[in-house]
Amino acid sequence: MFKEFFIFQDYFNHILESVIGYSLKVSIAIALWYFLKLIVKKIGKILFRTLEKSRLEEKLEVTVFNFLKSFFKILTDFIIVLIILPYLGVPTTSIIAVFGSLGLAIGLAAQGILSNFVSGFIVLNSKFFKCGDHIQCGDVEGLVENVQIFFTTLKTFDEEIIKIPNSKLTSNFVVNFSANPRRRVVISFQVPYDTNIALLKDKIENLIIFDNKKFNVEVCSPTLIVKKYTPYYIVVQARFFINTEVFWDFQYFIGESIKNILLDMKIKLPICFIPFDKVYQ
């Protein structure tokens, strides 16, 4: 009876020592994780600060620079895990086997994530847009804030922040409004049949060319055309090209000015007047 009790006590002490010893290892591993993360963070700050000072950021563009920051963080986290696991008694071959199996499982279960990862490199390599550009992807439109490994961040004109999976940028059409220095504006409106189209054309073309001193921009190919005839009114369009940087302000200015011209010419606006927000690129 006493012999069995001492055997059990020795066995219990052995288990307790093993638990305490492994708990100590885990605690040290956690402390090592935070220590290595702190070192890596400082190295990263020094590295990217050096790149900024050497003006390399401008050569890489802000988009690529932010992408490298995100990739550096994920890569260093992976390396730290590989350093710590052997300390906890996990053999290197087992680590490789586990990560291999894990990679296969993740690849099958999270094809979308891997697609976003690969698409991130495609987006950067294509250089179709960069931070600060005004783009549209599907029904989402805004300014590019950041491009990271899995997501691209857009800021809409309503100050909303939208994250688009990179795979969406490679599988959908993307319009970069900032890529061309000029954009086309088309404003449609309606006038009665008794309107003097020639006089209206002169006034609107003069407005677009000469009456925009405050913008001090070049307007190309201004014209007024008759779009179509309806049983009750004529649909006309004012068309012109304008510098991209003043696109929004200038189209609103022209829209308001056209309405004033119509009122000065005593042209009665139809009941179903088309608002000045029909803009085409």
Low-confidence stretches: 271-281
Oligomer: single chain
- What is the ordering of alpha helices and beta strands? HHHHEEEEHEEHEEH
| Major pleated sheet | 5 strands, antiparallel
Q: What structural category do the secondary elements indicate?
A: alpha+beta
State the end-to-end distance: 93 Å
Mean pLDDT across all amino acids: 75
* Widest β-sheet, arrangement of strands: 4-3-2-1-5
Strand proportion, as a percent range, falls in 15-25%
Helical amount: 55-70%
Shape: elongated
Count of helical regions: 7
Instruction: Return Rg in Å.
Output: 32 Å
- Give the total of beta strands: 8
Could you explain the architecture of this structure?
The protein is α+β, with helices and mostly antiparallel strands and 281 residues long. It has seven helices and eight strands. The longest helix is centred in the N-terminal third of the chain and has 52 residues, at 2-53. Helix 6 packs antiparallel against helix 7 (247-264). Mean pLDDT is 75; it is low at 271-281. The strands form two sheets. Strands 4-3-2-1-5 form a five-stranded antiparallel β-sheet. A three-stranded antiparallel β-sheet has the order 6-8-7, with helices on one face.
Q: What would the keywords be for this entry?
A:
disordered C terminus; five-stranded antiparallel β-sheet; 281 residues; three-stranded antiparallel β-sheet; alpha+beta; 7 helices
